[in-house]
């Protein structure tokens, strides 16, 4: 029987999230206190050593990102920034909310460590506007940290100063994409920027910026406190550490579970999730949200990590796991996903603006059709979505192909 | 509070625009950001009305037109849809005699779609103003709406 291994969720649900004393009593700020005695370069090394990969969906090595941002030239006497991506909009995902509501000081501590590593002057937490409780908790945690000298000038007498503020989103999925988020953070419409330059060199206000997901920051205090080598003992070779999976759909105990990387889908569904409910068997899971992949029974025993899933044509993504039983319609699920992208396309470039609508129309066109018709249409859609991926301005236009391809691969004849 | 007073809580910096717009919208009886507000924000930030207007129009949580006192945001993302969000939508539309996107004639309710609200383990989900409601079915929705309606009538009496 698999057990949870809690790093990002180690306090969530067991301490009062409003109280900095409670956080301290639970071992909070050990990582930061140690970090402030270290050479920032050493922190970068520990993060690299840990093998931590971004928990926002992309899986980019965090240490490397911190290193690039640390090395990036300042523009004159300008600032460096740290930004926390708390826009959590990927359907099926709610892990960042649980961290922010349950243990906001942990995320803030992680951000201060990241900031110290790159010697940033200023940071922002960009939280989606709908997350009312997360916003209140994070604001409270920041206020607490100022009062106790963990934020502001001369943090804990170290000579290092760092300021942190909250900024809000307002209902745009695309603003979770990092470059679009930075536009939005500057008070503009959420139209993407062209990559490169990357945020490490030109982020918010065009200054070097370290942008990471909430869960990613929540791992930093532990990595610094115990050392990257120790941290890496958890999880798999290529995806070390733990991951929060948010389980929803036809299981008996949906919810959030933090487990070591390499845990299988089967363990998640049948052991932690209590198995299928309603007496129907398992049909499919959608891994990683709308920008994720459909998988069937054959993936049940695959250890879940960024690379192991990729080998199976699947994605880990944000850790969303939506489970469908035999009574569910894959056609409808695909329809919802296509609807979602058509709605969230910002319309700035033609391939995505027209493409997302075209995919939706093609799929609606075969409603009620035979399995053969649907399979043929799905293949045409795959071509269209590939074209979109190649020609769109930002990664949103390249997202529909992900689920379509997996649908063709695993369920071609079952729609 | 006047819009000007709301604005003066913040330094006049462009990166605070979305935070300001949320605060203005919350402060306005119509749960909206009216053209007059947009002009004041532009003036406060020393920018053009067109540029502020563009931002208000871009983000789905902001509205220029006045809305009801309660904004119902019903999640229509994949998981909620799988477990019946569209049935609930039809139910709410019929109960309030409005369609998605509309406001009741007494200006009490506005019904809007939302993407995933982050409670998928307890779908279907909706948000009314700042409160989340989970594990919904028709009965529960009826109760929630009736409770709000009776609060409204007592307030008005
Ligand atoms: C359309 C789109 C939406 C995204 N939404 C989010 C999001 O809500 N939260 C998040 O952390 N990353 C999101 N990402 C990924 C970010 O672009 C970026 O990779 C992430 O913030 C990096 O942080 P990490 O390395 O810690 O994962 C999104 C990406 C795309 C293309
Ligand atoms: S790919 Fe889509 S979301 Fe991205 S810029 Fe183009 S239209 Fe906008
Ligand atoms: S899909 Fe509705 S809350 Fe996530």
* Second CATH tier, the architecture of the largest domain in chain A: 3-Layer(aba) Sandwich
Bound molecules: flavin mononucleotide, iron/sulfur cluster, FE2/S2 (inorganic) cluster
Unreliable spans of chain B: none
Fraction in beta strands of chain B: 5-15%
Question: In total, how many beta strands of chain A?
Answer: 9
Considering residues with a beta carbon less than 8 A from a beta carbon on another chain, report the largest interface and each chain's count: A-B, 48 and 36 residues
Please count the helical segments of chain B: 7
* The level-1 CATH class of the largest domain in chain A: Alpha Beta
Q: What does the radius of gyration of chain A come to?
A: 21 Å
Tell me roughly what share of residues is in helical segments of chain B.
40-55%
Round the Cα radius of gyration of chain B to an integer and report it. 17 Å
CA-to-CA gap between the ends of chain B?
Answer: 24 Å
Distance between termini of chain A?
A: 34 Å
Oligomeric state of the chains in view: heterodimer
* Silhouette of chain A: globular
How is this structure best described in words?
The complex is a heterodimer of chains A (415) and B (157). Chain A is of the alpha/beta class. Chain A has helices spanning 20-25, 30-37, 40-50, 62-71, 95-102, 104-118, 132-147, 178-185, 214-226, 228-231, 265-272, 306-311, 330-344, 350-365, 371-391, 400-411; strands at residues 81-86, 122-127, 163-168, 209-213, 242-249, 255-260, 282-287, 293-295, 320-325. In chain A, the strands form two sheets. Chain A has a five-stranded mixed sheet with strand order 6-5-9-7-8. In chain A, strands 3-2-1-4 form a four-stranded parallel sheet, sandwiched between helices. The longest helix of chain A is centred in the last third of the chain and has 21 residues, at 371-391. Chain A is globular, with a radius of gyration of 21 Å. The two termini of chain A are 34 Å apart. With 157 residues, chain B is α+β, with helices and mostly antiparallel strands. The two termini of chain B are 24 Å apart. The model of chain B has no long low-confidence stretch (mean pLDDT 97). Chain B is globular and about 50 Å long. In chain B, helix 3 crosses helix 4 (49-58). Helix content of chain B is 46%, strand content 11%. Chain B is built from seven helices and four strands, in the order H-H-H-H-E-H-H-E-E-E-H. The A-B interface holds A 88-94, 97, 129-132, 166-173, 184-190, 246-249, 254-256, 286, 290, 320, 322, 324, 328, 332-333, 336-337, 339-340, 343-344 and B 13-19, 21-22, 45, 54-55, 58-62, 73, 76-79, 81-82, 114-123, 127, 130.
